[in-house]
Amino acid sequence: MRSMPGKTLYDKIWDAHVVGENDGETILYIDLHLIHEVTSPQAFAGLRAHQRAVRRPDRTLAVADHNIPTEGQGLGVAAVADEEARLQLQMLERNVTEAGIEFFPMGDVRNGIVHVVGPEQGRTQPGMTIVCGDSHTSTHGAFGALAHGIGTSEVEHVLATQTLRQTRSKNMRVVIDGQPAPGVGAKDFALAVIGAIGTAGGTGYVIEYAGEAVRALSMEGRMTLCNLTIEGGARAGLVAPDATTFDYLRGRPASPKGGAWEMALNYWQSFFSDPDAAFDREIHIDAAAIAPLVTWGTSPEDVIAVTGRVPAPESFANPDKRASAERALDYMGLTAGQPIAEARVDVVFIGSCTNSRIEDLRAAAKIAEGRTVAPGVRAMVVPGSGLVKDQAEAEGLDAIFKAAGFDWREPGCSMCLAMNPDKLAPGERCASTSNRNFEGRQGRAGRTHLMSPAMAAAAAIAGHIADVRDFLR
Amino acid sequence: MQPFIRLDAKVAPLPLANIDTDQIIPKQFLKTVEREGLAKGLFYDLRFDGEGREKPDFVLNRPEYKGAGVLVAGDNFGCGSSREHAPWALMDFGIRCVVSTSFADIFNNNCFQNGLLPVVLAAPQVQQLMEEAKGGNHLVTVDLEAQTVVSPSGAVFHFDIDPQRKAKMLSGLDPIGETLQARDEIDLYEMKRALAQPWLEDA
Ligand code: SF4
Predict the structure, then answer these.
(1) What would the pLDDT profile of A15-37 be if each residue is shown by its tens digit?
(2) Cβ within 8 Å, pair B45-A444
(3) Closest atom of ligand 1 relative to the A435 alpha carbon
(4) B188 and B200 together in one domain
(5) Is the residue at B16 inside a domain?
(6) Whole-angstrom distance between the N-terminal and C-terminal Cα of chain B?
(7) CA–CA min distance B38, chain A (Å)
(8) Which residues of A touch B186 (CB under 8 A)?
(9) Which of A167, A166, A225, A229 is nearest to A202 (CA)?
(10) Is B1 among the domain residues?
């Protein structure tokens, strides 16, 4: 008799959250719901229109991050100059107060980018289901939680029912083995994966990251990797929890305490893929073969090594892809065949839910230390949360950045999507640690090159896209 | 939600891959607290120049495509942000159906929440529809019941769709109301969870 085949990590989390089946869809229980000012107002309006209540305010957490300014936060919401942004922030505050949802308002040291705050507070835990009206919710998969973005109608659905109607995804495993070269890290792994599978390569899948190089990553690195999973089209990314995960969680404000910690640990340790679990698709990447990567175009799959040249549109077989590449070169102001390291930068942005945690800031500061930002370059560092900012200041990182000529800002999404005053001017070129190089993402007609924090710092010093390996000492 | 049954409309071609939600509706329009009125921001940087003037050569600005109800676009339409403002803006503009070879996951879900039909066809069929849409006659018929798209030249393309999603789209049902009928099951699940994972109860 054959025994039952093993289960993947994804299947285990899924099975633990099935409330019931209805009409061929699964009603899946949601353990944690994160909300922010931009994608929640219409959901609360919908609840009100139907006289529905928030089912589990205690399983919901709210932050103000997308459109807050990155200076003067201590003055409070009333001082936000942009009227529409201010109204949206005030509406969030009203909605969450009415519903009894925990909220870290702008200026609170615990506030910051939603995907930095959840883990930092210990709200994000292994084996959970986590959703948020934001596509980069995939970040939380770093803890072995099934986490993904949802739209506003689904935000309303979760507020009202604490569940979501879902259909099961397929399983993909991305195994990253070997040891990366100095100067190569999680951001490069993530860009390498997207470059390999394409921005739609993960559609219909949940990706589990495994292998020696993934196990060796810190929680910050794992979050960077899972954060970018959505740019490969997958619903969520996962890393099985291990000692690194548990060490990170121990002692966080919302982490279980005392006897409950042991109980939780026991539960969390059951979340891993069985050795005989089957994956629908498997990809192997050799970490040692990855060079520091940058994007040249307007899609995160437009990836090349920093030593590479901008590709020619004719090199793409698919006609729509060719048209998109032509458009991208024109938009980016680049010529096919030019070395990417020749591209001069006007702005450097170190921040976003991809790369604004303490380890990211340390990596950038290491490159910036004792050096100066190139003349004419506007370089800014935006910590992911008030707590990250405090920690960086305690370590003296702010002093290093300021001495080098970087602008040290207050936390928020900032120039990742430029909903607040931090924007690129038309035609400006930016070395950015964020996750999207889409047209207009960082400001209308702005040009974005995605890269790691260390690479972005190197670009700030050099004044053009630069190989971080030339800056290591 | 608005039901979708059958649509006779003009089809507009947008032959680009990876059209992301930042292009569909840029961030400056996300500061609204309403669902309505987003048509003004649809494809803003494609439709308007830096001074806010209409770009005459953009497909949706051309007179022959005025009032288009269907878009046909390249691979991976709707990738990027989870903003439901994307389908809201398309609907507000009068677009009820998008045809492509593939859609990004969250955008696809958001469409089904709003009665905007995402139709997946094979690459050669999308190419044919794209070419025909560029020609003189732009009228197509999208029939959800029959699961067909009839091209301007009369070619009939069959598409697949999840039967549950199809049924919901046809009826325009409210999914929250439906899920709330499972209230007892949710209560039961929560009771069991409270026993097994008590640390989640006093957060
Ligand atoms: S930092 Fe950027 S990607 Fe992350 S949540 Fe904010 S806007 Fe979204």
Answers:
(1) 999 999 877 889 999 999 999 99
(2) yes
(3) 3
(4) yes
(5) yes
(6) 35
(7) 13
(8) 19, 27, 29, 55, 161-163
(9) A229
(10) no
